[in-house]
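Human: Not sure, check this?
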Amino acid sequence: MYQKFICYRLNPNEQELGGEVSLHKNVNGRIFINCRLDVRDHTAILIDEDDEIKAVLSLHHFYLLNVY
């Protein structure tokens, strides 16, 4: 199933707050349309309908919002 994702960078100055990750949004979130998500070893891989890799993102530095 192909979906729309918006990628945001985790706030690099406040990643660890009492053991929790800070999810301060960057307003310039990058949008990926018609992709499927594959997650391996804390890495998000976004693949389009032609099986082309559109993004490889470390989940230690980025988070994704799924937008239908």
